[in-house]
Write a sequence for this structure.
């Protein structure tokens, strides 16, 4: 029997290796649900997380404004879904910002 293993990070489920994407340039008005809404057409989403001030640790904050730098994660259930999202959403413009979407680097 094949069992998928998921890891919990920042109270979010992280999908299989290669199924997690990193999203840069997220508008400050977008939250986890907004991120889920724009990525849901590409597959089953296990979790989304827009890193905001209340969940960010040292190094993730803009040192001058102390605001989120506007990035987050989307975890899909399969690698194919993540790759489709990357192809379709990298460069997508939302609120005047061009999203940069790429695979999350796995440790």
């Amino acid at each position: 029997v094949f069992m998928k293993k998921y890891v919990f990070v920042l109270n979010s489920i992280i999908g299989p290796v290669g199924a997690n994407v990193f999203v840069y340039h997220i508008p400050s008005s977008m939250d986890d649900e907004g991120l889920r809404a724009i990525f849901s057409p590409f597959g089953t989403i296990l979790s989304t997380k827009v890193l905001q001030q209340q969940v960010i640790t040292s190094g993730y904050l803009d040192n001058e404004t102390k605001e989120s730098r506007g990035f987050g994660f989307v975890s899909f259930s399969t690698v194919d879904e993540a790759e489709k999202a990357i192809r379709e959403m990298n460069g997508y413009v939302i609120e005047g910002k061009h999203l940069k979407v790429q695979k999350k680097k796995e440790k």
Helices lie at 32-39, 79-89. The chain is about 20% helix and 30% strand.
